[in-house]
Design goal:
This protein is of the alpha/beta class and 365 residues long. Helix content is 41%, strand content 19%. It has helices at residues 15-23, 50-59, 88-95, 122-153, 157-174, 189-194, 219-230, 240-247, 251-260, 267-279, 303-310, 312-316, 326-331, 335-340, and strands at residues 3-8, 41-46, 63-65, 68-73, 100-106, 203-208, 234-238, 281-287, 291-298, 318-324, 345-347, 358-363. The radius of gyration is 23 Å and the shape is flat.
Length: 365
Amino acid sequence: MGFKMGIVGLPNVGKSTLFNALTKTATAQAANFPFCTIEPNIGEVSVPDDRLDKLAKIAASQNVIPARMTFVDIAGLVKGASKGEGLGNQFLANIREVDAVAHVLRCFEDSDVTHVEGRVDPLADADTIETELMLADIESIEKRLQNLSRKVRGGDKEAVQQERLLQSALKQLEQGMPARSVSVEDEDQKDWQMLQLLTAKPILYVCNVEENSAATGNSHSNKVAEMASSHNAGMVIISAQIEEEISQLESDEAQMFLEEMKLSEAGLDRLIRAGYDLLNLETYFTAGPKESRAWTIKKGTKAPVAAGVIHGDFERGFIRAETISYKDYIAFEGESGAKEAGKMRIEGKAYVVEDGDVMHFLFNT
């Protein structure tokens, strides 16, 4: 599995420019007017991971298949979106489908680029979107509670469970807190996710700064960092304009450009890593002559479920997993060397997969 991240924000904050850079395409028309992006543009990118190339070289793999991440560039939001203002209804429908939200905030001054509110204030921008999403969630919850009332009175267990979770969310929202602030028990997590509340989505603030602030940030991004910390959210600093330029260069030229800008890595790498942290994700690998491949799983995933990411039959018929840590695979130059050194482990159904594990699954058909 990969994951899907929605790129959201007010009009003209650099969402489409960032999308172009991240997906290395020009499919998102970047222009200086609101609602430039009407239908959500969707792009997939490879998740950069140096470990995969090293594994493939040792295994002499014919194909190298990285993990994938999907970006969705969603139409700009304005005040009143929860009531259908602007393209609000489309925005709200599109955002329900993503795993996490990358909220792009304008943290640059430029008189040539119009701000929909006529000022540069990333904290106010963040509050505008959060407020609209909370209002939309409140309206949605109130409708759902009305529809559930009859089933609840009839003692329907599923309806009672939904009502309890919805009431918990509504209580927080009415106090001005997003649904993600609700403390959800482990046994309720699956039902909670199925509610698809907008403000329950993990959020990553993306500070779009001017070129000179790409490495260090600026006063605007510093304020966002404080807000992100207090909200237990992620935060990255990116210059969308720089990232778009880098995306058009060959790898060697791009590296030189990054060094000139005093950047250790491209914004894509930082954004993906922050997204993985936000969603508590990690990677395991399969490696062999045919292909080496990266697979994305949640941290804490047990071996059968990890096997199921490859194919459902692997999980249903799981017997055991032959497992080598990435470090050992590299140190002993592959599966044979690791096996001879006693570094291949046979793991059962209770094994919790570690980041970087190189795995081979045995299963019944």
